[in-house]
Fold this sequence. Notes:
Elements: H1 3-19, H2 23-30, H3 46-50, H4 55-77, H5 81-96, H6 109-119, H7 121-138, H8 141-159, H9 162-178, H10 180-188
Helix pairs in contact: 1-4, 1-5, 2-4, 4-5, 4-6, 5-6, 5-9, 6-7, 6-9, 7-8, 8-9
Amino acid sequence: MDSRALTLLAAGIIGYLLGSIPFGLLLTLLAGYGDIRQIGSGNIGATNVLRTGSKGAAALTLLLDLAKGSAAVVIGQTWGEDAALVAAGWVIIGHMFPVWLGFRGGKGIATALGVLIPLAWPVALVTVLLWMATALLFHYSSLAALVAAVAAAALGPILADKPTALLIAGIALLIIARHHANIRRLLAGTESRISLGKS
């Protein structure tokens, strides 16, 4: 295996390991809320952490999940554009399918945003604004995530180079696939709403 292949392999491993850190689970355990996988939807992401009643824990989960996405890309960028894209893809896979949790992780929204910030910040900015607008209007985190994912895939070819746009489209497809149960509940009118106001 040549040095370039080893570099890409290292970028992928680092990305996966960073992505697989289950911050939502760790924070809720440390805060005494128990295993987040036994609460609400069972997801380890910030939206489900919010269901513990702790907006602080949810916000910290969001920030840490975002940070690991950005960290993976920044580390990869020190080895070149290809390594950055490999790290970006694998940090998402690590978050969604962490080996430590039997490959049952989160849905990747915050981590995907973290990836977008260093890779294609204009796409990140627009998708954040769309997520916020959708969440505020309809109070469905899942719907906001789906709108943001579709928008990111559509904006990638316009606001990013071709390899980055292809990666963004792939991440968007993964996010949509991970929301299959939410899509069914949205269509059935049984999806849980979120509260973004004061307690």
